[in-house]
Amino acid sequence: MSSGLGLARYAVCGVLTSGVYLLAGQFFALQFANAALSSSCAFVVAVVFNYWLQHRWVFALVTPVSRSLPKYALMVGTGLVLNAITVELLTPRLALVSAQLVAVLVVVAANAVLSFGWVFRTGRASDGRGA
Asked: How far, in Å, CA of 85 to CA of 89, rounded?
């Protein structure tokens, strides 16, 4: 897959995942009074969707689940912490959805670097750069 096509698919995946995250965030906000808890629950729903879409569509031909899933789980844990901290810091000043949008930007930037550079990275077996 060309790098341009990979980036385009990654971007589409990110937009779809962000939509799932924002909708789930509004749903969980009706269930829980705590903004960080609501946002964290929405984050979990979104990352399950995101892994499935990335593995099946964005990086499908290059990375087996056995290699990418543990790395993805660590990346998600890091993103969950970044998400909770961002929302917790911003909700006193912004509406939940606005804080979530900022959290999306923070987490997406970190995840893009980690996804392409580590989680789903592949290299030819002969060059020693494999995932």
From this structure: 6
Residue found by looking up tokens 């077996």 in the block: 125
Torsion of CA 47, 73, 113, 43, to 10 degrees: 30
Q: Is 121 helix (H, G, I), strand (E, B) or coil?
A: coil
In sequence order, what are the residues at sequence separation of 6 or more whose Cβ sits closer than 8 angstroms to the Cβ of residue 91?
Answer: 35, 36, 99
Model pLDDT for residues 19-76, shown as the tens digit of each residue: 999 999 999 999 888 888 988 899 889 989 999 898 888 887 556 788 888 999 999 8
For residue 79, the SS3 value is: helix
- Least Cα distance to 17 among 59, 41, 52 occurs for 52
